[in-house]
Design brief:
FAD/NAD(P)-binding domain; 39% helix; binds adenosine-5-diphosphoribose; 12 helices; globular; 8-stranded mixed beta sheet; alpha+beta; single chain
Length: 386
């Protein structure tokens, strides 16, 4: 069975698909979002939370920022700790002088779903796409959905990416060889800023989310089972790596969630062809070390919305022809900085001469960041920029 053709079929209701859907509706392009999970799962998934100024501008200009402007918090500083001490970078006064807005991704997703429905859009939850070919999406259960275009916004394991790579599109990949135990706790932030702690036992991170929920990260070996990490062990290890004996205690609370994140990055060599175009993680996965994933997804969704609008409403395909090139230069810029952050935060394993060399470089880089104004400007511009 086939349902009537729409302008754009969007696979996936994450930040990429939902921003794209909202922008298309606003520009008068009809679309349909297919999402394999149910609404509660999509709206309850705690993930990123740091919105770059560029993302806030896109969301504001498109009437999608009421929640984040009302409830988001502005962050302009971040803090580094190591055995050399602690320093704070006031990146809001460095580089381009711009802040982050901290707004939990699940709240943004909730806002985007509500606004998309208010604009008259249709989302099918519990609708899993199995394959996409030439504008036709085959759904689990046998129905086909067709669009003049299909937007694969279905994440890095999605069918959009699979369809493109099956036709020869290459994927450039990097494995950072590092994993993080990502822990969400029911406790207020312990620091007024994002905290990055470098430690011989591995990296630890502190990221504010809301007044009562905080995200922590603990670097741990690949393959670690989160079940091995009891609440006690988590708090003890965080205290050690964040050097609470020296800098003061963390505000503890119940662990709400603990998952292992392998730090991997990849980028497709092109972001679409013909009737299939990708945005967000489906086009490229970026390690979380510089909080760029959701911001890249929003950037791509906005570019793709403009290109699809031109193609569908004015028969002008130049935007689609330029879409990949425009996005890829910014995607690679973000990857370059994310990679830089990753080597700053993670020292090599082991105790041999090579590891000793790598660790000393890591600390030299940190020291340069502490003392060099031009290094700080570079950091600030790239930390908040996309
Ligand atoms: N059919 C329908 N829906 C699917 C399918 C499928 N076959 N496969 C995946 N999905 C849905 C997922 O359930 C998910 O809701 O696609 C959505 C993809 O959303 P995300 O994974 O959030 O990806 P994206 O929108 O690209 O967001 C990118 O947000 O959380 C941050 O940093 C994170 O980089 C990530 C960024």
């Amino acid at each position: 069975m086939t349902t009537a053709q729409v302008g754009v079929v969007i696979v996936g209701a994450g930040p990429a698909g939902l921003v794209l859907g909202n922008l298309l509706l606003d520009r008068g392009v009809d679309c349909l979002i297919l999402e394999r999970r149910d609404r509660a799962a999509v709206e309850g998934r705690a993930r990123a939370g740091f919105l770059a100024p560029h993302s806030v501008r896109i969301l504001t200009e498109n009437g999608l920022a009421a929640g984040l402007l009302a409830r988001g918090q502005t962050h302009t500083t971040c803090l580094f700790r190591s055995d050399q001490g602690e320093f704070t970078l006031d990146y809001g006064k460095l580089g381009l002088g711009e802040p982050h807005t901290v707004y939990p991704q699940q709240e943004l997703v909730r806002d985007l779903v509500a606004e998309y429905l208010r604009r008259g859009g249709e989302i099918r939850f519990g609708a899993e796409a199995e394959e996409v070919t030439d504008g036709r999406v085959r759904m689990r259960g046998g129905t086909d959905v067709t669009g003049r275009y299909v937007a694969g916004c279905d994440g890095h394991r999605g069918i959009g990416r699979a369809a493109l790579t099956a036709h020869g599109t290459r994927t450039a990949r990097w494995d950072h060889g590092v994993s993080w135990l990502a822990v969400l706790v029911a406790a207020p932030p312990s620091l007024s800023a994002v905290g990055y702690a470098l430690h011989e036992r591995g990296f630890a991170g502190h990221m504010a989310r809301t007044a009562s929920v905080t995200r922590y990260y603990l670097q741990c070996p690949r393959g670690t089972d989160p079940a091995e990490w009891s609440e006690d062990r988590i708090w003890t290890e965080l205290a050690t790596r964040m050097r609470t004996a020296e800098f003061g205690p963390l505000r503890e609370g119940a662990v709400l969630e603990k998952t292992l994140v392998d730090l991997r990055s990849d980028v497709l060599e092109t972001l679409g062809a013909g009737r299939l175009w990708l945005a967000g993680d489906s086009a490229g996965l970026i390690s979380p070390s510089a909080a760029k994933g959701a911001n890249l997804a929003i950037l791509q969704a906005e570019s793709l919305a403009r290109a699809l609008e031109a193609a569908l409403l004015r028969g002008d395909g130049t935007g689609l022809a330029r879409y990949a090139g425009d996005c890829l230069s910014r995607i690679w810029h973000a990857h370059e900085f994310s990679q830089w952050m990753s080597t700053l935060l993670h020292g090599p394993d082991g105790d041999d001469d090579t590891a000793c060399y790598g660790r000393s470089l890591q600390y030299a880089r940190l020291e340069s960041l502490r003392t060099s104004r031009s290094h700080q400007d570079f950091f600030a511009e790239n930390y908040t920029g996309i």
